[in-house]
Amino acid sequence: MATAMLSIRGLRKTYRGRNGARANDGIDLDVAPGTVVGLLGHNGAGKTTLVNQVVGIVRPDEGTIRVDGVDAVARPDLARALVSVQAQANVPITGLTPRRAVELVGRIRGGELAEVRARTAALLESLDLMQWADTPAQKVSGGVARLTAFAMTTVVPGRLVVLDEPTNDVDPVRRRLLWQHIRSLADDGAAVLLVTHNVREAERVVDHLAVLDQGRVVAAGTPADLAADVRGSLSVELDLANGWREFPAALGDVAVIGQRAVAQVAAADAAAVVAWAQENVESGHLERYALVPASLEDVYVQLVGPERTATVGDDDGPAAADESSTGGTATGGAATGATGSAATGSTATGRAATGQPSTGRAATGQPSTEQEDPR
């Protein structure tokens, strides 16, 4: 990795509240110019605490943070001048329009008026926000507000851009536009630290990943490096009916989270698993199944455990919305005659007792509401 724009060594922070929780426990992390580094972790893993220390909101107990060589612990004012941050919670802009809010931030960050206006217009256009550009902020949706916050952060980007859950509340179409912009920031030379739960979408744009669990980095590397162990295997996702728990040996270890089960399958067993799943959809044991190529998300679940990925969050954290995306290679429901080739990525979908013909789709996103621990 090139010389780091952000360099963190031995970072430790313990909150002295009722739990005495160690939010960061010896974290080392580098973010180089021209790269996107993804910081992944369940709620309460310590991601937001790390961000708050980088910008001087929280002071670490131990360790060093340097932003372009500046000691961010000793001189947080100098470090902040080099950083643009999109916080997990949107900045209130009541009384302003999205256009006006973005332009004001651009001017505050030292941009020339004409350049800021041009950059603002370009951002609003490319994020598909022009129809709300001059609407009072209190009248726009949460997704538009979130995209406006991203535009405010990047209208005059710092040398280090920190994005904390930037896709929260954003619809699937504009989320794709947002990911393109995040990649473009790095391609234009910025160092980007991306905090996210959206593992499957993030892996498309990140150069390097660090996975946090209980305040520690439990894995780090490129997406390809981290996913090497599951390359060539498939992931089967099952929506269970009435507490049914009978699985074939081909599924191996099955992680059950409520009424949903996930397991990995060898490619050679894919056809047999699809036949088994379809039979059990038709018999009413399964509501739905999906067979997809094993991905970085499967690695993430293995690292942090399904019980943590399913956690809603601690009771002392502000609410945050998270949209996850899932990709389907072969999915099925009763009486559809759906078939799919998991190994080739062809798609088929269906649901129980619908009798509907199969339809193809590449990805689906379902919003969920989660809470983020202030750590």
Q: What is the arithmetic mean of pLDDT? A: 81
Profile the largest sheet.
6 strands, mixed
Shape type: globular
Class from helix and strand fractions: alpha+beta
Q: In angstroms, what separates the terminal alpha carbons?
A: 28 Å
Strand count: 17
Task: Give the count of helical stretches.
Answer: 11
Major β-sheet strand ordering:
6-7-8-3-9-10
Helix content: 25-40%
What Rg do the Cα atoms give? 22 Å
Share of β-strand residues: 25-35%
Summarize the structure.
The chain is an alpha+beta fold. 27% of the residues lie in helices and 29% in strands.
What does this structure look like?
This protein is α+β, with helices and mostly antiparallel strands and 375 residues long. Helices cover 27% and strands 29% of the residues. It contains eleven helices and 17 strands. It has helices at 47-54, 76-80, 98-108, 113-126, 142-154, 172-187, 199-202, 223-226, 270-282, 296-304, 306-309; strands spanning 6-14, 22-31, 36-41, 62-67, 70-71, 83-86, 160-164, 191-196, 208-213, 216-221, 233-240, 255-257, 260-266, 286-293, 319-327, 330-332, 363-371. The strands form four sheets. The chain has a six-stranded mixed sheet with strand order 6-7-8-3-9-10, sandwiched between helices. A hairpin with a 2-residue loop joins β12 (255-257) and β13. The longest helix has 16 residues, at 172-187. The radius of gyration is 22 Å and the shape is globular. Mean pLDDT is 81; it is low at 307-375.
